[in-house]
Amino acid sequence: MTAPTTGALRTDGATLHYEVRGEGPLVLLIPGGSGGAAAFDGIADDLAADHTVATYDPRGLSRSPLDDPEAEQRVAEHADDAHRLIELLSPGEPAQVFGASSGGIAALHLLATRPERLARVVAHEPPVVEVLPDAADQRAFVDRVEATFRAEGLMPAMAVFAAGLSGPAGGAEGDGGARPGSGSALPPRAAARAERTMADLPYFIGRIVPRFMRYVPDVPLLKTLTDRLVVACGRDSRGELPHRAAARLAGRLGREPEHFPGGHVGLTTHPAEFGEHLRKLLRP
Questions:
Q1: Is residue 26 classed as helix, strand or coil in its secondary structure?
Q2: Which of 40, 55, 122, 163 is most exposed by smallest CB count within 10 Å?
Q3: Domain containing residue 161: CATH number
């Protein structure tokens, strides 16, 4: 694995840690869940053979501290962070963006607000549950996660969250696949990543989940931008909430979803196939 060049970017209310590999047109990779830049370690080097590949820790996670640690989070701020990275790394040239899960929601908002800066957006299983016919039930589910976290703490809230997504505990929101376990059995970078993922879970459950899963995408506007938008699902996650939401969004846009290898965390479980599939969707 090639060591990336790292940097820090000041934005409104946060300092973003970002990593860059390769040369060529910019591809910005936005992680989901409590995953950070390292969530893309399995695919970044291959993409960097003919692209500048950038990823980062979203604000409030890992190495991207907030100025106010208690600040509420908004999708619009996270999308603006992605825009600022594009302005820094690809001034004057449109970029391509891949967003996983909650990162896919940020990517959708970025496309809706800054379409002139984007050549293509691939949103993999963004949990935009407000597009579903049972959106009211999903709002109640998010309310339960938030209330459980406040009253009982992290692990009971994680159990409610995992049950509602009908996916494996801790893995269904695009955390990049890092799992708790014995850090001593992992390579140093992987061990550090696992530690960061666990440390970031309270922030993710307490402030990312409630805001991102209440996000309402601008479907009529996105429908005018489908020439540069790909909504994607995992081949193995049918029936799970993020898959249902993404497939429904694609249908509302008049498109079929693109299917990637694996499930919601196919990025981690099938990195070679996942990366190759993404490469085929990127514009030259």
A1: strand
A2: 163
A3: 3.40.50.1820
Full residue range of the structural domain in which residue 89 is found:
5-281
pLDDT score for 124: 98
Q: Which amino acid type is present at position 9?
A: L
pLDDT in tens, 111-160: 999 999 999 999 999 999 999 999 999 999 999 999 999 999 999 999 99
Q: Is 231 helix (H, G, I), strand (E, B) or coil?
A: strand
How far is the C-alpha of 191 from the C-alpha of 11, rounded, in Å? 28
Give CA–CA dist 33/100, Å, rounded. 8
Which residue stretches of the chain are H helix? Answer: 41-47, 75-89, 102-113, 135-152, 154-165, 188-203, 209-212, 219-223, 241-252, 266-269, 271-281
Domain count, the chain: 1
- The 3-class SS string of 121-137 reads EEEECCCCHHHCCCHHH
Name residue 189's amino acid. Answer: R
